[in-house]
Design goal:
Layout lengths: L10 E2 L2 E6 L9 E6 L4 E5 H5 L8 H14 L11 H12 L23 H8 L7 E5 L11 E5 H6 L3 H38 L5
Antiparallel strand pairs: 1-2, 2-3, 3-4, 5-6
Length: 205
């Protein structure tokens, strides 16, 4: 049986271990950790020890910001028009000390891993249709992810907060997620079929 190692008080890159957390369903040990940015989360022992988990996600965000600075997307006076939007989404969902966190990250609203890269974010949301438009989540209780956001004006967003419309939006978001899953499955099926045909023809793949 492996020897238990108490990680309390340990520093692992940006994580500081606060205390032992509850094991997961498969009895793997987890630790309650605080990131330098103030976020708190449960992290597996092996993720801390092998360096798989180095922060709450802010490390990759900061690396991206530095890369953007090198390429001019975040430089003062030369920021991409949507840089502030991207940065604000991450801040209110992942930084407990930020204003607005209670209404977003504090109630479980997250940002998909893909959108920690601003280039992926820009590719998914496209250009702002007009200065009156802002990003709106289709399912207000859902994450910031490609299938759950749209550009909408303030009046459009306010109309969509009635109970009946809210239910419709949630259903629409679920439909969009199912459609995306169906497309992904079909692409996988086509790829597997192409691979099978190539192998049948004696082509190494």
């Amino acid at each position: 049986m492996p020897t238990f190692r108490d990680l309390t008080g340990g520093r692992f890159d940006r994580w500081t271990v606060l205390r032992r957390g509850p094991n997961d369903r498969t009895n793997k040990s987890r630790w309650e950790c605080e990131c330098v940015c103030g976020a708190v989360g449960l992290v597996y022992s092996f993720s801390l020890l092998d360096g798989t988990s180095r922060s709450c996600g802010c490390l990759i965000r900061d690396v991206n910001v530095q890369r953007l600075l090198r390429h001019g997307l975040a430089r003062s006076g030369h920021k991409h028009p949507l840089y502030a939007t991207w940065h604000g989404i991450l801040a209110r969902c992942e930084k407990p000390r930020q204003s607005g966190y209670r209404r977003y990250g504090g109630r479980g609203i997250t940002v998909c891993e893909r959108w920690h890269d601003i280039n992926a974010f820009l590719a998914d949301v496209g250009s702002r249709p007009s200065p009156q438009h802002s990003l709106d989540r289709v399912d207000p209780d859902g994450a910031y992810e490609p299938t759950n956001v749209r550009w909408a004006t303030a009046s459009e967003q306010s109309r969509n907060w009635s109970p009946s419309t809210r239910a419709t939006r949630i259903a629409t978001a679920a439909t969009m997620r199912r459609a995306k899953l169906k497309r992904d499955i079909e692409r996988l099926r086509v790829a597997l079929e192409a691979r099978r045909l190539l192998q049948a023809a004696g082509v190494k793949v």
